[in-house]
Design a protein that fits this description.
This protein is an alpha/beta fold and about 325 residues long. It has helices at about 10-20, 35-40, 40-45, 110-120, 140-150, 170-185, 210, 220-230, 270-280, 300, 305-325, and strands at about 55-65, 75-80, 90-95, 120-125, 160-170, 195, 260-265, 285-290.
């Protein structure tokens, strides 16, 4: 293999934020470290999130049927309290991140709730079984079962089943892309858009950006290999990986709902995200791609007040506003 070029520099504001957490956050993760990661302080904080956003939403946990023969699925349903009950609202169906190995339906939901507060939308956030205890297809099938229930029961919580947008970050972004493929191929619920934030798309882990970011940032190729191995076992990187596990494996990206994709220039997933957007265009589809210069993985969560973070969140909200208007 040719020598790996150095990674792009981090944005100065983001580099300063990363420096603050470098002693407690390693970019790598081994399989035997997953139980410890699940006990970290970040996981405890998920239980403290105010999913009503200071009373702006009515929040309810719903238990709905899971995939055939599998356990039920937990959904967090949040509806604006000041919404007109006679007017069905668009639905943001959120899939949480965490490398397929961490998290629950509270993880990352603050972003979709902020959009929904601005736009007048319902948020439904799904909890799925985690790898390695529950390898593929458990996570994506749980998320799809939750989507089926959401589309079929939208009227119960004031949602519009014809205006469902999928959204997810990191592993949740990969699952969001997989849900769009599943819904297309199974003639499932109609979807008006998919919002893929720094999505985890390719189990092969062999892009230039994957090698550039080894040992750097908050999620490197070692952590990525761990996560994909947890999901796929020894199939990871081999010839028989389903596109519903790793959407980058899909040979046909036509017929998908409009996509928003964003990624940092200084992160492991950069090249696979850029390639996925390009292949949507090559298939005649609609995609908006943002590559944030100097951004590391999940930068807007670590440094929400940084200029680049504010720009990224504004772009996401603007895309959603235009999607719902049209």
């Amino acid at each position: 293999m040719a020598p790996v070029p150095p990674p792009p520099p981090f944005d100065p504001e983001l580099a300063a934020a990363l420096d603050l957490v470098k002693d407690v956050l390693s970019p790598g993760l081994a399989l035997d470290e997953i139980p410890t990661a699940r006990q970290g302080a970040g996981m405890e904080l998920l239980g403290l999130i105010d999913v009503t956003m200071g009373g702006a939403f009515e929040a309810e946990d719903r238990t709905v049927p899971g995939p055939p023969g599998a356990p039920d699925v937990s959904l967090l349903v949040c509806r604006p309290v000041d919404a007109d009950p006679a007017v069905p609202l668009p639905v943001i169906y959120h899939v949480h991140g965490g490398g397929m190995i961490l998290g629950n339906n509270r993880a990352g939901v603050d972003g979709p709730l902020a959009w929904a507060r601005e736009l007048g939308a319902v948020v439904v956030s799904v909890e799925y079984r985690l790898a390695p205890e529950h390898p593929h297809p458990a996570p994506v099938e749980d998320a799809y079962a939750g989507l089926l229930w959401t589309a079929g029961h939208a009227g119960e919580f004031g949602g519009d089943p014809d205006r469902i947008v999928l959204a997810g970050s990191s592993a949740g972004g990969g699952l969001t892309a997989a849900l769009a493929l599943l819904a297309r191929d199974r003639q499932g619920p109609p979807l008006i858009g998919q919002l893929l934030m720094c999505p985890m798309l390719d189990d092969r882990n062999e892009t230039v950006s994957s090698h550039q970011m080894a040992g750097v940032g908050v999620w490197d190729r070692t952590a990525n290999e761990t996560a994909w191995t947890a999901l796929l076992g020894d199939r990871r990187g081999g010839p028989d990986v389903s596109p519903y596990a790793a959407p980058a494996r899909a040979s046909d990206l036509s017929g998908l709902p409009p996509a928003f994709l964003d990624v940092g220039s200084a992160e492991t997933f950069r090249d696979e995200v850029v390639d996925y957007a390009s292949r949507i265009w090559q298939s005649g589809g609609v995609a908006e791609l943002h590559v944030w210069p100097g951004g590391f993985h999940g930068f807007d969560g670590f440094a929400p007040q940084a200029s680049l973070s504010l720009a990224a969140r504004a772009a996401q909200l603007d895309w959603l506003r235009r999607l719902l208007r049209d």
